[in-house]
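Hi everyone,

Forwarding the result from last night's run.
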Amino acid sequence: MRIAVFSTRSYDEEFLGPAFDGSGHELVFLSPRLTAETLPLAAGFDAVCVFVQDRLDRGVLEALALAGVRLVALRCAGFNNVDLAAANEFGITVVRVPAYSPYAVAEFTVGLMLALNRKIHRAANRVREWNFALDGLLGFDFHGRTVGIIGTGQIGAGVARIMHGFGCRLLAADIRENPELLALGARYCTHKELFAASDIVTLHCPLVKDTFHLISDGAIEKMKSGVMLINTSRGAVIDTRAVIEGLKCGQIGSLGIDVYEEEENLFFQDLSNHVSQDDMLARLLTFPNVLVTGHQAFFTRDALEKIASTTRANVDDVAEGRSCLNAIQIERAAGKSTKP
């Protein structure tokens, strides 16, 4: 197959290139995102390899099909940026990488919690200025606190294991119970119960219709005053406007996000010499109790190696006419998967 790799960064070439050596497939690395405007770049290819910020709506997929593209290879787990019904209609197979490294995202999630709680990022900045005062850096013990985990697939389970090791009580919410969490002593409950009892709420659910703006004004009102809120799943699971209001009134005590609902034109690029056009993100960054990172939770060598090798295996399966275990079926778009 001849494959156009969109949204390419240096690390994509570093890991995908060697993974496809000797495969018989030709990779062409392209830095632009795949959108309606960049569609001409896909001409002459059998497949496109895309990431979370590429837009594969109905119009894009129809044009890809007319150009002869028969495979969309996602190098990520989430697929909310793909119109699966349209892909099926136009005869395009969509495959993904469902489990590149749950450890990478789980460990990063807990890193956000620790940094926010103990103000590590603020302390590091102070010390650079020879300010060793401890005022304003007070945190709390994780031991004995209650952590509410929404989405208990592989990543959510990884967070549960780590927080259990800290001595936390675990609450969980998902459409199905994970036996691993039950073995850790976690109790499954409704979102309302989880919000009311949790000192920390961490999100690990996919972005589907039922989880869009799951964290809204109503949800925040049900949370403990001063709650820590963490999101490393998908940006639009959180209503950013509602969260800003929650921060302003103190209902949300701290916020850590590695994803943002309007990240499409921001993340994965250097905009340091540009004037910000995103007022909501600019407002978030003014809060001293907010930590924002640029969708890097997945970013470990182990994860990138797994993404590359799984993408190669997915392409091989489709090219050779085999059934691919990582092909996405239309019914999954209804939100039955627990993996973010």
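The domain at 102-292 is CATH 3.40.50.720 (Rossmann fold).

Cheers,
N.
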